[in-house]
Write a structure and sequence with these properties.
Elements lengths: L9 E4 L4 H7 L6 E6 L2 H5 L2 H10 L4 E7 L8 H13 L4 E6 L1 H16 L4 H6 L10 E5 L11 E6 L4 E6 L7 E4 L9 H20 L5 H23 L4 H20 L4 H13 L3 H16 L4 H12 L6 H14 L15 H8 L15 H8 L5
Parallel strand pairs: 1-8, 2-3, 2-4, 4-5, 5-8
Antiparallel strand pairs: 6-7
Helix pairs in contact: 4-5, 7-8, 7-9, 7-11, 8-9, 10-11, 11-13, 11-15, 12-13, 14-15
The chain binds fe (ii) ion.
Length: 381
Amino acid sequence: MRFEFELPTKIYFGAGILDEALKKEEKRIKGNVLLVSTKSMEEVGILERVKKSISELKYADNVYVFTDVTSNPKVEEVNKGIEYAVENKTDIVVGLGGGSAIDAAKAIAAGAGANEKIDKYFFEGKVPGENTLPIIAVPTTAGTGSELSKSGILSCTEKKIKTGVRGSMLYPKAAIVDPELTYTVPRNITMETGFDVLAHAIESYVSKASNYITQALSLQAVQMASESMRSLSENLSDINAREKICYASMIMGINLGNASTVLPHRMQYPIGALTDTGHGRGLMALYPAWIKNTYAFSAKKFDRICEIISGKECSCIDDALETFESFMKATCGTVYLEDFGLEYEDADKMAEMVTGNISLDPAGDKENILVSIYRDAFKNH
Ligand SMILES: [Fe+2]
């Protein structure tokens, strides 16, 4: 096996670590700071708390706030953020929130550093340059792992495109992962984002680009994410489980950049672009159908994953499907593509909308694999 492994981000992890970590990063957090977040962070008071902590840092002159970011962050929101960042001569960008806020922060840092709109990066695949502003990521959900990854996923509503701006300059300089910030996340979001963590673990494990390091991280994350989701579905106040899922989410950020996700993530993007539904829910709808179509191409790896999730021996496709059915019933619930307003006939259209590399999936080269999975993700077919 030959591989490269990249992890340029300084990690701060632990309940209550936020202020201590910001203090340790004070030399980096200098001049004009742009805090990119969402309205919901404002409503729960987290935004104000973090803004205050940053304002008190020795070298921070001004803290500007940009909260015009929605879920599935849009190209036009990012362009607005870039304009605001340039106007205020931003020196460093802090992304605070779920994946949407951190992804938008990364894209704003790239565009503002180069003093240009994000369009060329998003539509034409331009790679963010050396002039990208430094980024610090402070996640408030356990899900995307964006704090340790080199991509920012954006959407264009008009053209129905959802894809990533990617490049090594988008790695945050520091990731501050404080599980306390996730304590107030409601049950549905906890489960949806938790399922995203599990999906990162499973997909990066079966990915053809996985290596010895990422495979070990994947198995640890499958264990911790599935256990925590079960615990949190019974008791949302289980802070031990909150900590574990934050950790699993974070280390899967490492795998996103080093082993990649596979078909479900490529296939969720058209669903998100067409229906503006959350990332985790799209994955939940696709998973049983993906496993059904892909199991035979990587049976040993799927058996291993299912044994960790179920605690039972797994040796065939029926065991795998049963594992996911009962796990999802006990945690996030099951969902089908028609629940998002999609129709069976949309399968072909969605398959044509899939972008990016699909060959890393064990079944990526199988003929008509995309249409077949989309069709199977409808309950009535
Ligand atoms: Fe994801």
